[in-house]
Amino acid sequence: PLLHALQKLPSSGVQLSDDDRPGVSAYADDLKIFSGTKAGVTAQHELVAAFLDWTGMKANPAKCRSMGVRRNGNGAVEADNLDLALADTPIPTMTHHQSYAYLGIGDGFDHVRRRIELAPKLKLLKQDATALIESGLAPWQVVKAVKVYLYPRVEYALRHLHPEDQHLKGFDDHLRRGLTTSLVN
């Protein structure tokens, strides 16, 4: 219900095309709101805060971030503090030169350097897969652990990074060989 309510706000979102105006993104228990105006983000934030109060849920302001930007008189992008808070605790503000890391993936305007970050992440995921496969767990436990713990990390990374096919194929081959060996033995 919250996602639909946020998307229905008239000031919600950023117009990408005639019929596409995204204003909210969610992954697991995390929420990202965005708007083309400071008033739009404020309205979205107030709706989220009211929803949290209504449901009795609590958010941790220390794990939240806000980023506002605007164009100055010369047309250059500069920070614009949104002054958001949850339960009277200010939400930390980022500048347009910063990013917030979630599941090891940076999110912000400095995203260009993030395009090459999947290779090291896949290497770590391969190591984790190997540890699971060699752990002595029953094959069904290994498969469940891969599904619950490894795939979500890969899936989130793929939403934000553009990997080379060879990196994905290497991870897929490694996982397939390991699981096949685990199931056969």
UniProtKB/TrEMBL annotation:
This is Reverse transcriptase domain-containing protein. It comes from Phytophthora rubi.
